[in-house]
Specification:
With 561 residues, the chain is mainly beta. It is built from 7 helices and 27 strands. The longest helix is centred in the last third of the chain and has 16 residues. The radius of gyration is 39 Å and the shape is rod-shaped.
Length: 561
C-alpha cells in the first residue's frame, strides 16, 4: 500500500508549476514534514487543516520563533503563539496570534523633480496575517471537520517629496506618507478522514468565503494579493507505530512529501521536500526537523532551505515584484531560508490513550464459600493492545461495586508498540459476598492503564456471576472452602463432646490420642445427624458445619464438610 500511495503522489508532482505553496510556517514540526495537512493534531499550524485540532488532549499552547538567513537584516523573529482547548470530547477551538507572518517589500521609483507638485519616491508594500481562529467537530472516531478564519491586512505606503522654490534658493521637503490599507477575513474548511487505522486523508478548501474591508487606489490595485479559491488534498500513512509518511497536493499546482520517524526516548526526526515543476529536479526546498517530547512538553527545531536563492532575501527591496505569485504569506517565491524553534505545552485532564481493550473474559463465577481464592487465582482475562509509539507498562484493575472494598490491580506487563497481550486479573471480595442468598449477576468494571498514564486509558464493563453462599461448583476439591474450623459454634461443640469423654480418653497413648478424639467426635456427630436431601433437589447445595449442627440434618456433602 505504501508503494501505491507514493506512486500517486509522485505522479502528481510531475504536473507542478511555479506557484506559492500555502503551507503554514508557524511550527517547526510543519516545516520539517512539509506535507502537514493530514498530520495536524494540535494548535501547531492548525490553519493547514482546522479539522485536526479535535485530536488535542485538552489545553494546548504553542510558541514559535525563527532566525532568518544571514543576508537579511532580521535576527530572531517572534513567529507567534497559539492556544487551543478541547471540550466535551467532540469539540475544539483554537486561536493564533502570529506577528511573524508578515512580508514587506520596497518598490523604488525613479525620482524626477520637475515641478513643485508632490512626487512619490518609493512605495512600501506590506502583507500581514496576524490572527487566525478555528473550530472543529469530531463527527465520529474516523471523521472530523473544521472551519478556520485568517485575518489578512495589506498596506501600501507612499513616501512623497515636494520641491520648494524660493527667491534665492530651493529645497526638497518630505511630505506625510500616504497610506492605503485593505483587510480580508478568509474562511477555510477542512476534513480529516481515517478510512482505516493506518491511513488519514485530508481535504482543505482555502478562501471559500471572503469578507473584505477597504480598497486600494486604482494605480495600486496590482499590488493586492489574490484570494483564489484552492483545494488541498493530503494523505498520511502510518507504516509502523514509529514511522509516518505524508504527501500533499494543491490545485495551485504545488505539493510536498515528508516523513516523521519516532526513534525512541521521546525523539523524532523529520524531513520533507517541497515540489515545483519550475525547479530541477522538481524540488524547490528541503525541510529538516528534530523534536523531543516528554509527557506534556515538546520542543522542536527545523531548517528550511531553498535550492534557488534568486529573490529570496526576505523582506526588502525586490526587483520585478509580482504579487500574483503569492498565495501564502508564509511560503512563497520570496520566502528566505530559516531556522525555526517551537515549544508546545499540554495541560488539563484529557490525554491520549496508550492502550485499548480488545475484550474481557470472566473465567468462572464467584462461589461465596471460596471467594477468598480469587485473591490469588485469576477471575478473568483482559485482552489489550499498545496503540502508542513507545514501549509501555500496562496494568489491569478490576472492581465489583458493593462486594469489593477497592479495585485490585495486576502486576505491570511490558508491551512493545502495536503488541497485544492478555492480562490476568484477580479479585479481593469482602464479607458481603457471604450474605448472597441466591445467584445473581453483577457488573464488574475492568480498567487498564499504562505508564506514564494516569487514571485509566480504557474501561470495559463485564458481567460477573456471584452464586449463593450455599452453592457449590461440584468439585470435591472445592468442598474444603466450606470447612470452618475456627467457627465458634464448631469449637464449642468439639470441647463439649471431648469433655464428656474425658475419662475414656485419659488412658490412651499419645500416638493414638488424635485418632481416638476423631473417632469420638465422629460417632457423637453421626448419632445426631438425620439424612435430609438438599432443599433444592440439587447436588450443588452445601451447608456450612454450624448450620448442619443447628439443623441436625443434611446430606452426604454436608456430612463431609
Amino acid at each position: 500500500m505504501t508503494r501505491y500511495l507514493l506512486a500517486i503522489i509522485i505522479v502528481g508532482a510531475g504536473v507542478f508549476e511555479s506557484a506559492a505553496y500555502s503551507q503554514s510556517l508557524f511550527s517547526s514540526r510543519a516545516i520539517g514534514i512539509g506535507a502537514y495537512s493530514p498530520l495536524v493534531n494540535d494548535t501547531r499550524s492548525f490553519t493547514d487543516n482546522p479539522a485536526g485540532i479535535v485530536n488535542m488532549r485538552d489545553w494546548d499552547l504553542s510558541l514559535s520563533t525563527y532566525f532568518g538567513n544571514v543576508s537579511s537584516s532580521h535576527g530572531f523573529v517572534f513567529q507567534g503563539i497559539s492556544l487551543g482547548k478541547r471540550f466535551l470530547d467532540r469539540y475544539a477551538i483554537a486561536l493564533q496570534y502570529s506577528p511573524g507572518t508578515s512580508m514587506e517589500f520596497v518598490i523604488p521609483t525613479a525620482l524626477t523633480l520637475v515641478s513643485t507638485s508632490p512626487t512619490s519616491i518609493d512605495q512600501r508594500v506590506s502583507y500581514d496575517e496576524p490572527f487566525a481562529a478555528a473550530f472543529a467537530l469530531k463527527v465520529s472516531n474516523a471523521l472530523s471537520v473544521g472551519v478556520s478564519s485568517r485575518y489578512r491586512t495589506e498596506k501600501i505606503t507612499d513616501t512623497q517629496y515636494q520641491l520648494v522654490l524660493q527667491d534665492t534658493s530651493s529645497f526638497i521637503e518630505r511630505l506625510p506618507d500616504v497610506e492605503n490599507t485593505s483587510s480580508t477575513w478568509n474562511v477555510d474548511l477542512g476534513i480529516h478522514w481515517k478510512p482505516v487505522r493506518e491511513v488519514t486523508l485530508s481535504a482543505v478548501g482555502k478562501n471559500l468565503l471572503q469578507v473584505k474591508e477597504g480598497a486600494f487606489p486604482q494605480e495600486s490595485e496590482p499590488y493586492r494579493l489574490g484570494n483564489k479559491r484552492l483545494l488541498e488534498l493530503g494523505v498520511g500513512y502510518t507504516v509502523s507505530p514509529s514511522l509516518t509518511i505524508a504527501g500533499q497536493y494543491s490545485t495551485s499546482n504545488v505539493g510536498a512529501l515528508g516523513y516523521e520517524w519516532a526513534t525512541g526516548m521521546g525523539f523524532a526526526i523529520r524531513s520533507g521536500v517541497y515540489l515545483s515543476r519550475s525547479e530541477s529536479p522538481f524540488v524547490s526546498a528541503i525541510g529538516l526537523g528534530l523534536g523531543w517530547s516528554y509527557r506534556f512538553f515538546e520542543a522542536d527545531m527545523s531548517y528550511l532551505g531553498f535550492l534557488s536563492q534568486d529573490g529570496r532575501g526576505g523582506s526588502g527591496s525586490v526587483g520585478g515584484f509580482d504579487p500574483s505569485a503569492i498565495t501564502s504569506i508564509d511560503l512563497n517565491r520570496y520566502t528566505s531560508d530559516r531556522v525555526q524553534f517551537s515549544l508546545k505545552v499540554v495541560f488539563g485532564t484529557v490525554r491520549t490513550s496508550l492502550v485499548t481493550i480488545g475484550g474481557v473474559e470472566i473465567l468462572e463465577g464467584v462461589y461465596p464459600s471460596a471467594y477468598e481464592a480469587f485473591a490469588t487465582r485469576p477471575i478473568g482475562l483482559v485482552r489489550v493492545k499498545n496503540i502508542s509509539d513507545q514501549p509501555i507498562d500496562v496494568r489491569a484493575r478490576f472492581y465489583v461495586e458493593k462486594y469489593m472494598d477497592s479495585p485490585t490491580e495486576s502486576q505491570p506487563v511490558y508491551m512493545l508498540p502495536g503488541e497485544e497481550k492478555e492480562l490476568p486479573f484477580t479479585a479481593i471480595f469482602n464479607e458481603k459476598v457471604k450474605g448472597v442468598e441466591q445467584m445473581m449477576v453483577r457488573e464488574g468494571n475492568v480498567y487498564v492503564s499504562a505508564t506514564p498514564a494516569e487514571e485509566y486509558d480504557d474501561k470495559y464493563a463485564a458481567r460477573v456471576v456471584i452464586h449463593g453462599k450455599h452453592d457449590w461448583d461440584g468439585s470435591v476439591y472445592s468442598l474444603r472452602y466450606f470447612v470452618t474450623p475456627e467457627d465458634p459454634s464448631i469449637l464449642r461443640y468439639t470441647r463439649d463432646v471431648l469433655l464428656q469423654h474425658k475419662d475414656s480418653l485419659g488412658g490412651i497413648s499419645a500416638g493414638l490420642e488424635d485418632f481416638q478424639k476423631a473417632r469420638v467426635l465422629f460417632n457423637a456427630f453421626a448419632k445426631q445427624l438425620v439424612y435430609v436431601s438438599d432443599p433444592k433437589q440439587s447436588a450443588d447445595y452445601v451447608q456450612y458445619p454450624s448450620e448442619t449442627l443447628q439443623l441436625r440434618g443434611g446430606d452426604c456433602d454436608d456430612m463431609t464438610t
